[in-house]
Amino acid sequence: xxxTGTYRGLALFDLDGTLTESGPGIMKSIEAALEKxxxxxxxxxxxxxxxxxxxxxxxxxxxxxxxxxxxQAVKDYRERYGRVGIFExxxxxxxxxxxxxxxxxxxxxxxxxxxxxxxxxRILEHFHLDVLFPVVAGATADERLVEKPxxxxxxxxxxxxxxxxxGLQKERIWMVGDRFYDINGAEACxxxxxxxxxxxxxxxxxxxxxxxAVADTPDEIGRIxxxxxxxxxxx
Length: 235
Hints:
Number of strands: 8
Strand order of the largest sheet: 5-4-1-6-7-8
Radius of gyration: 18 Å
Mean pLDDT: 93
Order of helices and strands: EEHHHHEHEHEHEHEHEH
Strand content: 15-25%
Helix content: 40-55%
Shape: elongated
Largest sheet: 6 strands, parallel
Distance between the termini: 20 Å
Number of helices: 10
């Protein structure tokens, strides 16, 4: 908050590939689920592409599973992920410092992830990041709420009470993520997005999707966000 007790802006962060390098645990859990389905003919690229998007979409699109098989694969994935995979994970260097800097500069940081919300809370608590996120929005366990635009809308709804008076102004809201799903979700909600290249999406993917800015490091995310907020405040 600033010296008036209000937030200057809102930064919505994806989790996997943006705050944490979660790929090892996710990919091992996907491979375990594929093994139980008897699927062995797949590439590392297919498995890696599953980091970030909703699981139902990944099993269907990457491996051609039918609905019943997808449901079972998600159950098998979660059985391993909830025990082991969730902690085969690390926070990217510079992320905590960037989040604390933004908080000190009056930016409200919120979490908007397609990962089930109960996992999101466990991960944030495990890495002691929970105190940096007054607002958290994730998917429902039954996958009924899983699409990125819906997750972003939920995060915005939960953040709105923290912006009294003039409320949430869209020119002061940014989504930060590593995949085109984040860019598309932000666009669908009428907000801008910063793509990050150190996660699981390439610069080419992010630029093609229409990212408004691209950052190569967590520190650069902070610098871009503050610069954009100053521009908005000067208008």
